[in-house]
Amino acid sequence: MIDHITVAVSDLSKSKLFYEKAFLPLGFRPAFGKESVFWAFDIGNGCLFEIQQADSPPPLTRVHVAFRACGKAEVDAFHHAALEAGARDNGAPGLRPEYAPDYYACFVLDPDGYNIEAMINQPAVGT
Known about the structure:
This protein is an alpha+beta fold. The protein is 20% helix and 42% strand. It has two helices and eight strands, in the order βαββββαβββ. Strands 2-3-4-1-5-8-7-6 form an eight-stranded mixed sheet. A hairpin with a 5-residue loop joins strand 7 (103-109) and strand 8 (115-121).
C-alpha cells in the first residue's frame, strides 16, 4: 500500500493554498509541514499527499513514493533487493525519529533518480 506521495512544486505557498481549496470538498486537510520546505495533507486511512519546494535538499526528489511495509525486516529486505537491482542508496534502513518516534524507513533512488521509500510507522511488537 502507498503510505505517501511527495511531488515537487515551483511555488510552495501558492500550491499549498491551491490544495487547501481544492481538497476542501474531499475533506482533506493539511496535517503538518514546514514553511518553505513541504506540506503534508491527510487524505484518509493514514495516507498523505505531500508537496515540497522544488529546490528542497535531499533525501526528497521531484517525485517521492513511500510504500508501507509489514515490519522492519521487510524494509531491510526491500533496501537490499533494490540495491541489488541497481538502485542507489539514499538512506539506509533505520529509525527516523524526526518523522515520528517509531518511523523506520529506507530510501533508494530508482534508475530515473526518483526517491522510493519503504517504511513502517508503528511500535515494535512487545514494547
